[in-house]
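Per your request, structure below.
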């Protein structure tokens, strides 16, 4: 049986009901989009980064199959969790590779509106992750928007669709989040 991208939610509901065959059917359906998200994340990394999109997707998949008690709500929920896992994997990778330099050499960062792909050094990724984690405690929805926009390269329209909010709300939250993160990152630069 061939599944379409719209079938992701149904496969996730089947998975929630304990249908392990749904898990095997899910990956071929979501793989292309996961790889696109991984590619967006990795465009922010330095050119010599050792992870490739396929490896990042595989790592996400390995982490997802270990989790048994997730109540998947929808396709958007699945991709949001996957994007968060990608961010955590990249931050863990940066920490492992630059543990000796932790905190050293962090430059002031600007969260660019057009988000043209530009390499970000691992100490900056770690600093942004720490700031974003702190911000997440204050405002989870705005932090999610930053994660999807900066790390994932999602457009405002894509974010609005994933979070089921208006594009105007995404723009407003993005402006507020950028200002908070800019202050936070530059305070420690």
């Amino acid at each position: 049986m061939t599944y379409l991208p719209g079938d992701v939610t149904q496969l996730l509901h089947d998975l929630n009901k304990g249908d392990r065959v749904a898990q095997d059917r899910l990956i071929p359906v979501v793989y292309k989009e996961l790889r696109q998200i991984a590619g967006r994340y990795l465009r922010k990394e330095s050119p010599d980064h050792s992870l490739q999109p396929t490896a990042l997707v595989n790592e996400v998949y390995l982490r997802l199959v270990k989790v048994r008690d997730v109540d998947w709500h929808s396709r958007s929920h699945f991709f949001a969790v996957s994007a968060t896992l990608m961010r955590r994997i990249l931050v863990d990778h940066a920490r492992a590779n630059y543990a000796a330099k932790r905190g050293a050499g962090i430059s002031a960062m600007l969260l660019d509106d057009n988000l043209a792909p530009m390499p970000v050094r691992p100490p900056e990724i770690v600093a942004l992750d720490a700031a974003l984690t702190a911000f997440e405690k204050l405002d989870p929805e705005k932090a999610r928007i930053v994660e999807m926009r900066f790390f994932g390269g999602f457009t405002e329209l894509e974010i609005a669709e994933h979070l089921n909010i208006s594009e105007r709300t995404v723009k407003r939250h993005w402006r507020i989040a950028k200002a908070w993160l800019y202050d936070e990152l530059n305070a420690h630069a």
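The chain has a mean pLDDT of 77.

Regards,
D.
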